[in-house]
Amino acid sequence: MHPLKLAPPLCVLATLAAASDADLDQRVQEFLWQKHGTWHEWNVPEQDGRILHDLVLKHGFTRALEIGTSTGHSGIWIAWALAKTGGRLTTVEIDRERHDTAVANFRQVGLLDRIDARLGDAHTIVPALRGPFDFVFSDADKDWYLRYFEDLEPKLTVGGCFAAHNVLRGGGSGAAEFVAHVESLPNYRTTIETGSGEGISISCKLGGDGGRPNAGR
User: Fold this and answer.
1) In Å, what is the CA distance from 72 to each residue of 41, 133, 159, 212?
2) Half-sphere exposure at residue 30, Cβ-oriented, CA atoms within 13 angstroms
3) Is 212 contained in some domain?
4) Number of domains in the chain
5) Is residue 4 part of a domain?
6) Domain that holds residue 189
7) Is the pLDDT reported for residue 7 higher than 70?
8) Which of 78, 102, 135, 204 lies in disulfide reach of 61, CB 3.0 to 4.6 Å?
9) Does residue 210 fall inside a structural domain?
10) Residue 50's pLDDT is what?
11) Is the pLDDT of residue 14 over 50?
């Protein structure tokens, strides 16, 4: 007869979880420190990565989508926060070389199990995604920002947020058109984080009609 195997006490499980979180924190911090100043190839600056990380933690998001992986800098910040909320990130990149580099970075930092990294054209992949999502970060072709939002809006949960990069600098008319649209919606509250200066718009979905349009700059 096999001896009875008892589950570890909850206090032991909590201690192990805390230790695992601390190990991951140290691993991510060391990786980001080693890579500091090397994130090119259309990656977000560190200040903006921190904004994304803190936004996920603040709202407890668990079902995230990123449009435009590049080599993985923003994805690491988002997935690091999702590791604390118990969530997962789906991220889409059209360029194979950048995609492969991002996957290698995700693996090295210890976050690959939190990430579904997809290679392909977001114009076709994004509309086909089932959702729902509670957080979206768009940092791909700016002229398509509004289309991405329109494709994903029905799949964004109430309380969820759609963030877009380069809305203050480098986004051109496509980003401006997108911001004007989301600021006109009565069931969204849009604010803009300056961060690095490139600007991140954050549009959060309200219940009902949301009351009134806003211009949350």
Assistant:
1) 10, 20, 26, 37
2) 9
3) no
4) 1
5) no
6) 11-205
7) no
8) 135
9) no
10) 95
11) no
